[in-house]
Design brief:
about 270 residues; mainly alpha; three-stranded antiparallel beta sheet; two-stranded antiparallel ribbon; globular
């Protein structure tokens, strides 16, 4: 059974209970081991959960129209002081999930569903969600208020562009092979490459900035208001993300890559 703590954006293998002693797994705040980059490069390495659910029970509660061997879930918990992002969607194998990981189902095509996932994971949507979510949970009544791009607003080129990137970001292990095949891809999982993934995500963020009708300066503001109004400007947007990246990379990498992707697209 998947719990939200096992996942992150575009990553169904964020953390595992493998290596955690049995007596420690069932504490109120149990420890969990995050996969490192070397581990994520192994497509045969999967999440070890705390709990197990019968496959028959899972199939009985999933709506009949959902024929896929994978699911779309999101992390319900939000911590503005610790998390770099508030909305974190991912595609996982068709397993049971805990109540900390609500599911989203859709009757749209697989590639259109990829656009939904990418929309939720975009910086632009996350910026809006930060204004809406006042508590520690991303409840459905908050989720339903978020301004998603409607399916009819995507061009065929948009859907192909977004779907290809969601596929590469998602299909990093063999347990997501059914998703890849539903996308029309029959090759091996994509190798986990942090630099490559950062570029793909930046391209998606730039694409959604365009779909939302933003200008470059508006995108700059969402990334970091101080970049537009100067270092003394009192407002912040993605402070945790910015600080984490400066600490890890010596720069606010997301800002640089998203603006570079915007400029490359000729917007």
């Amino acid at each position: 059974m998947y719990e939200s703590k096992n996942t992150d954006q575009y990553n169904h293998r964020f953390a595992t209970f493998d290596g955690i002693e049995e007596k420690e797994r069932y504490r109120n705040r149990p420890p969990i081991n995050e996969f490192n980059e070397n581990q994520l490069q192994d497509p045969n390495l999967f999440v070890i959960p705390r709990y197990w659910v019968k496959e028959l029970d899972v199939n009985q509660v999933v709506f009949d129209f959902w024929k896929y061997k994978w699911l779309i879930g999101f992390r319900n918990a939000i911590n503005a002081f610790a998390d770099s992002r508030s909305v974190r969607f991912t595609i996982i194998p068709r397993y049971g999930v805990g109540n900390s990981m609500p599911l989203i189902l859709s009757r749209k095509s697989v590639r259109e569903v990829c656009c939904l996932v990418a929309n939720f994971n975009s910086l632009i949507l996350d910026y809006i969600a930060k204004q809406k979510a006042s508590g520690g949970n991303l409840n459905f009544y908050v989720l339903k208020q978020l301004p998603l791009i409607p399916p009819e607003s995507y061009s065929p080129q948009d859907i192909e562009y977004i779907g290809d990137r969601v596929l590469e970001l998602t299909y990093t292990a063999w347990d997501m092979k059914p998703f890849a095949e539903d996308m029309g891809y029959h090759g091996d999982p994509f190798i986990w490459d942090e630099n490559r993934r950062a570029i793909l995500r930046a391209e998606l963020d730039a694409k959604y900035a365009k779909l939302y009708g933003l200008t470059r300066d508006e995108l700059r503001y969402i990334l970091d208001p101080a970049d537009v109004y100067g270092p003394d400007f009192p407002s912040e947007t993605f402070r945790v993300l910015k600080n984490n990246e400066i600490k890890k990379y010596g720069e606010y990498r997301t800002q640089r890559l998203v603006l570079a992707a915007w400029d490359m697209m000729g917007y």
